[in-house]
Amino acid sequence: YPSEFLMQKITEENQLPVHLHVSVSLQYVAGLKGRALVEFFHSNIAEVENEELRHLMWSSVLFYKTPSVEVMACVLLSTKAIYFLLDDSFIHADEHQSDFWNKENSDCENSSFHLSCCFVLKLNDLQSVNVGLFDQYFRITGHSADHIVTCLTRDSYNTHTFIQQLMAVLSLLARTPSPEPVDKDFYSEFGSKNTGKMENYELIHSSRVKFIYPNEEEIGDLAFLVAEKMDGLTNLPSLNILLYVLAFQVNHFEGSAQNTSSLQPKTLILTSSDLFLFDEDYVSYPLPEFAKEPPKRDKYQLADGRRIRDLDRVLMGYQTYPQALTFVFDDVQNQDLMQNLTLDHFGE
Hints:
Distance between the termini: 86 Å
CATH class of the largest domain: Mainly Beta
Strand content: 25-35%
Helix content: 10-25%
Radius of gyration: 24 Å
Order of helices and strands: HHHEEEHEEEEHHEEHEEEEEEH
Number of helices: 8
Oligomer: single chain
Structural class: alpha+beta
């Protein structure tokens, strides 16, 4: 261990997203290749001597206790645990909420020693994995509020690959069997023999970890919510959600020194008549079993909404993925331009 194929695969996966800023310590990790990367894992991160590194992924993460702070992380999956190597700026981002972090080494800030905090979720503590709409993100749930974290991959391929690797690693765990065989087989769990319709999207793995996938009701709820925001301009049955994607809204600041831009995480929803941007809570829903009260904010909060008929043009950048799109809308306050022109021309 490890095989040449595995080392090559992990090296290929060790690619920093170009559009997201990371600290010097994580840039160092992103520069490691092959055997150096595996040795770094064993000497600095691994908790058990005989555990194997199986998968590496770069992703934005959200913690249940700090749902408004999105931070970049290197996610390492081994045969014993999931490690989240975090950007050290996260410790100072939300001081009053992130008290569950160990801050003993904060005096190293001004030295040449770069510190990253590492959040560890042992596989034996893992209870469920919730996959988000269209595989844009997934939430890993442990036994307490400290052990809930969402990975915002914004990429269905990365989500699918991680889930497959996680299932494979969980299959290696030796867990005590249930007192009685309560788990159904795959086909009775997923489908009805009479109608063929999907009824339950919950897959119970052999390690007794639940993998929960969104069902049609979530899209229906989302369509109803979007229709509410449209102030009854359209009827609900004809409303179709054509696209749901996790994106960033670019806020451009023109400063005296240099022009800078910040990326604000948004959920973009496209219907047949409108384009919406929502602020979405990715980590608090569905409510975990130990939650005594609902979260302080709704799952979806409308940030902006425009009609497609007011869309003037779309500007596309020529850079590689991720692609930047600029939507230019006509700045018209009234609902129907032609109607008002007609009244103005022919009326009193």
